[in-house]
User: Fold these one by one.
Assistant:
Number 1:
Amino acid sequence: MRKHFAHPFKRPIADHTRAAFEAVETHLRKHKRPLIFDSCCGVGDSSRLLAVEYPDHWVVGVDKSEHRLAKERAGKEPENLILVRADLNDFYRLAAAASWHVVRHYILYPNPWPKAVHLGRRWHGSPVFPDMLRLGGRLELRSNWKLYLEEFQIALGVAGHTGTLAAFKPKAYLTPFERKYAESGQPLWRLVAQL
Ligand SMILES: C[S@@+](CC[C@H](N)C(=O)[O-])C[C@H]1O[C@@H](n2cnc3c(N)ncnc32)[C@H](O)[C@@H]1O
């Protein structure tokens, strides 16, 4: 992970993510509002709930799965909600290069990649980790896999940040994965850091 702070991530950025990023930038420029970022938002339920909770903020939810984002919705979407299909390995780099600063950043139930050989696919083991942290703000990760958050907490420490990790019981479910894990009796964990 330390090597990712020493060397920039050079993989070329996909055209579709660059186009998606530029469309979001154009939208955000119409009205200046504080920004909430919901990474790996899946079907976007958490982004919708956050948009309702913070009506004077923009809430940008990003997921690489068109299938998940395209899930049919009944009713009108909040006007401050922007859902984007993009690969965050590229989107984070574009956002950091454009000096985005978010007030809140959620990463809810990221894919765990539990095999040791896949450490580089976990966000804290990925070359884009430094760009992810450059977005700043209050970062919150949730997972049913404590080890993922413990590793992330250590990686935050290497980057000079302190994260607080604790078990929690949701009063209302923010995402479908949260519901699934909680209803199957699994303990849930939350890591929060002010970057
Ligand atoms: C376990 S699901 C969690 C979804 C949602 N946050 C929830 O809790 O219901 C993980 C999500 O991360 C998304 N994802 C994984 N890697 C990604 C990447 N590089 N860029 C954007 N989304 C990604 C997947 O498409 C998937 O929807």
Number 2:
Amino acid sequence: MHIAWATDIHLNFLNEQKREGFFHSISARNPDAVFITGDIAEAPSLRFHLQEMVDSIQKPLYFVLGNHDYYHGSISSIRNEINALCETNQHLTYLCGNQVIELTKNTAVVGHDGWGDGRLGNVEHTPVRLNDFRLIEELTGLEYTKLIDKLRELGDESASAIQQTLATALDSYEHVIFLTHVPPFKEACWYEGQVGSDDWLPFFTCKAVGEVLLELMQHRPSNQLTVLCGHTHHEGTSQILSGLRVLTGSAKYGAPHVHDVLEID
Ligand SMILES: [Fe+2]
Ligand SMILES: [Fe+2]
């Protein structure tokens, strides 16, 4: 089975011709399915872009959402809207931590957005302020300590959503692929070939999810867990444990591409 993986495609920055070009570049790789690890568009156009992409590629599309997908909207209403869209389209699957999808006899996929949960790096003194904090309804107008509390809540929500589902998947499949937007480990937070700086780490890693992955994989020598993520737009591979590998995909605004084609047994 061949799976085309792209991340941070930010389709709202492309005109129709460029979007078609990107969709054709996916189809040209002749995948059996497609993975997208978030930052697909922005809230007002997300539904349209997902529908347009799946109409063009005509293959099962498994995805999670990234922070940009909630821009000019709210996390709760977009999640509801996209879940409803997926119910009407058999090729579209939004992975929210409640499903184990079999890809082959040995391999399944699970996913959840994740969130930069303000736990790693220099959260107290960083001068970094993301557009998230003025463009996503749940994060706007919060005083800094309340904002960090909210980011932690979002990270914790993600961690608890996947905990049982991943355990179930690992019990039944030798290899599990976990799709998420935010790198779950500092080592996977690539920026120009190195780990991102302490000022960016709080918003570019999801420590809560990383802890769940470590706990699950520490005692499972016969399982392989492959994490696919994005968000930093810079690529890298990190081997966290012998059975736990994280691939962070590259991306460029205005020029989305298939980062990799995975061969699944
Ligand atoms: Fe992005
Ligand atoms: Fe992002």
